[in-house]
Amino acid sequence: MAHIDTTGWKPERIGRLNKLLDKLIRSEGQVKTQRQWIEDMPDDVTKEVIDGMIDYNRTHFNRLTSDRAQREYIARLKEKRNYVVGDMLVPKLVFDAVPGEIIADADRKGAT
Question: Is 75 inside a domain boundary?
Fold first, then answer.
């Protein structure tokens, strides 16, 4: 069971984290809080930082008026960071609270 580690965190940050963890999420036909999903993960859960290309929208891209705008759109997505714990997309605050091995983009690309 994965756990949440807030050792050394300020009370304000813990409060924001608790609000995020109490959010309901539907996955695999079940509705649980994000805290319950994370606690159900194994202790050796992997954490991954990925670029924003997961948010790519082909329709939006094709409606952009110039090649320059399309290049800027792609650049913005590549600059953006998304945080994944196990197979769940989570906010940065939750990502920081869950202990685990972090897999960087370079490590993931080198493995494939």
Answer: yes
